[in-house]
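Sat 14:20. Reprocessing the chain from the morning session after the first attempt stalled halfway. Input below, unchanged.
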Amino acid sequence: MNSYHIQLDDVDLNSCVENKNVFNILSFNLWSDYLEMPGYLDASLSFRLTQNYSTVHSTYSIQFERKIGPLWINIPCITDSCSGQSLCILIQNSCGSIKSCNKNCQLSTGSHTLEHIRLPLKNSFFEHKIFTKGQYKFKIQIYDNANTIVGCFTGYITLKKNE
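Finished this time. Tokens:
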């Protein structure tokens, strides 16, 4: 098992091009600075909804890039799936202790926080030394049932191998 120190360097909140954001991202944080492979990226996400919203048919996607020199290079998906993931299931799995969150995937206007969002990470990707320590960028986009982006953010992390 490989272990890493993970540092969240920056988050560009609401980095969508469109101005049709239903989800206004307030914050994104990591629960721990320790990461094991295989394992989970454990995070929290706070957002404000501009309207009542049903996440039943909504999805999210995650895109990863690795900084090599001055360039950002797209990298393969390092979670179980990087696109078309159910936002409803994510909420159901992440809102156990959240009073503003309910298990039927209906969210009201206002602020919400999802704690302990656990994204499984594939070990096979990190077997190649070039893709371990260094800087990474990830973009998470949220889509409505018509596949229109209704929220997104970009984060920057640094991984350091624990010796």
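Helices lie at 87-94.
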